[in-house]
Please model this.
Amino acid sequence: MAGEGHSVQRACRALHVAESGYYAWRDRPPSARTVRHAWLTEAIVGIHTASRGTYGFRRIHAELELGLPVVR
Model:
């Protein structure tokens, strides 16, 4: 926030949230869901790139189902 010219104190006051909550959120490690989502995004981009951009969501979904439980 400071990089965008906003102070944490002013932003928290405007959003009606505690500063301590902001700092707790900022310093918290990523959740398992966030980590899995990032990994899955990388896998999707890799499959799409390997197909030279020709695979759409159906083929990518089929590739992912070879060992990963995913939904559309």
The mean pLDDT is 86. The CA atoms of residues 29 and 35 lie 10 Å apart. The first helix runs from residue 8 to 15. The two ends are 34 Å apart (CA to CA).
